[in-house]
């Protein structure tokens, strides 16, 4: 009998210990846990500027777009074959930065020649208004997460409106002569951006083929010899 009492007392002790341990080691979801500080993102001091000998590398860049087909169906995606960009980018001083570029709308490419030469050209307003869309930055700001928020003017289909672009920088990489890379020595660096706009409600596009919301993805690589 004494053994049974001892065993029961031992089990009870273990349960009490487990409950105390659980209570002391776990925090309820609604319990205050103090202030959480955001990560301290560091920005470098690199510059990528046309005025300093950096050239736009179109071969390794792209201007892409996407929207819902018929406004509700599967994603319709494409690119523009003719485009360019200019940059005066200061990594740690965004107020000194600027970015501009253009696409030629009639070079739209979705991989379907019949579609590209047909309804899409009418959709983009190429035949009636302008064959060029332009983007010009107005303000660069740090986003506090290692990237940038860029306010830019989009000039498209005869309308000019501001858009907000998320921009990220790919730091410089240098290739030496002995790296085996053709054309070395040179350095490369990149800017990647994404923004969206309302094609119908803001830029007066009249078409049942696309949704109002259009997303643009820009990949701009720059190259500097030496």
What order do the helices and strands come in, and which of them pair?
Blueprint: H1 2-25, E1 47-49, E2 55-56, E3 62-68, E4 75-80, E5 83-90, E6 98-104, E7 108-109, H2 113-117, H3 119-123, E8 132-142, E9 148-156, E10 159-175, E11 186-198, E12 213-225
Antiparallel strand pairs: 1-5, 2-12, 3-4, 3-12, 4-7, 5-6, 6-8, 8-9, 9-10, 10-11, 11-12
What does this structure look like?
β8 and β9 (148-156) form a beta hairpin. The longest helix has 24 residues, at 2-25. It contains 3 helices and 12 strands. The radius of gyration is 28 Å and the shape is globular. With 226 residues, it is an alpha+beta fold. Strands 1, 2, 3, 4, 5, 6, 7, 8, 9, 10, 11 and 12 form a 12-stranded antiparallel β-sheet that branches. It has a single domain (47-225), classed as Beta Barrel (Lipocalin), CATH 2.40.128.110.
Terminal residue distance: 91 Å
Beta fraction: 35-45%
Give a short account of the largest sheet: 12 strands, antiparallel
Tally of separate domains? 1
Number of strands: 12
Order of helices and strands: HEEEEEEEHHEEEEE
**Unreliable residue runs:** 4-26
Q: Report the CATH topology name.
A: Lipocalin
Mean pLDDT: 85
Helix content: 10-25%
Structural class, from secondary structure content? alpha+beta
- Quick one: CATH superfamily? Lipid/polyisoprenoid-binding, YceI-like
Can you identify the CATH class?
Mainly Beta
**Shape assignment:** globular
Question: Top keywords for this entry?
Answer:
globular; alpha+beta; 226 residues; single chain; twelve-stranded antiparallel beta sheet; 3 helices; Lipocalin
């Amino acid at each position: 009998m004494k053994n049974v009492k001892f065993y029961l007392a031992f089990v009870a002790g273990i349960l009490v210990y487990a409950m105390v341990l659980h209570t002391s080691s776990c925090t309820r979801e609604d319990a205050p846990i103090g202030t959480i500080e955001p990560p301290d993102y560091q920005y470098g001091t690199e510059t990528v500027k046309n005025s300093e000998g950096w050239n736009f590398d179109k071969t390794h860049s792209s201007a892409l777009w996407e929207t819902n087909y018929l406004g509700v169906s599967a994603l319709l995606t494409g690119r523009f074959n003719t485009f360019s960009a200019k940059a005066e980018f200061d990594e740690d001083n965004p107020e000194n930065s600027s970015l501009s570029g253009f696409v030629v709308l009639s070079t739209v490419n979705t991989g379907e020649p019949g579609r590209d030469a047909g309804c899409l050209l009418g959709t983009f307003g190429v035949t009636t208004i302008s064959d060029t869309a332009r983007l010009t930055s107005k303000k660069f700001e740090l986003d506090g997460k290692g990237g940038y928020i860029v306010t830019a003017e989009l000039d498209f289909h005869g309308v000019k409106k501001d858009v907000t672009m998320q921009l990220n920088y790919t730091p410089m990489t240098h290739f030496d002569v002995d790296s085996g890379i053709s054309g070395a020595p040179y350095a490369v660096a990149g800017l990647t951006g994404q923004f969206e706009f309302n094609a119908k409600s803001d830029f007066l596009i009249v078409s049942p083929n696309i949704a109002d919301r259009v997303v643009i993805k820009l990949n701009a690589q720059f190259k500097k010899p030496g």
